[in-house]
Amino acid sequence: MNISINSMEDLFKYSYLLPHVVLVDIDKRIGDWLVSGGNIEDGYIKQQFRYAEKVIKEVQKCIKKR
Fold first, then answer.
1. 52 CB neighbour count, 10 Å cutoff
2. Three-state secondary structure along the chain?
3. From which domain of life does this come (predicted)?
4. Which of 9, 10, 36 is nearest to 44 (CA)?
């Protein structure tokens, strides 16, 4: 399953696939960015989405090995 996260809605949709500590970290980073004046469309937010995609991909690989 190839997952693409391009919005906060996508992140929420696939959040169940992320380890809790990763989800909390991403949430804090995005929240801090927005509070400091950043925009939801900024590259930094997109970077967090890509990180979530990579973690999900690794989690899925680990599950397949079982």
1. 22
2. CCCCCCCHHHHHHCHHHCCHHHHHHHHHHHHHHHHCCCCCCCHHHHHHHHHHHHHHHHHHHHHHHC
3. Bacteria
4. 36
Residue for token pair 């004046």:
37
pLDDT, tens digit, for every residue of 7-54? 999 999 999 999 999 999 999 999 999 999 999 999 999 999 999 999
> pTM, whole model, 2 decimals?
0.91
Question: What residues contact 52, with CB distance under 8 A and at least 6 apart?
Answer: 5, 11, 14, 18, 22, 26
Domain boundary assignment for the chain: 8-65
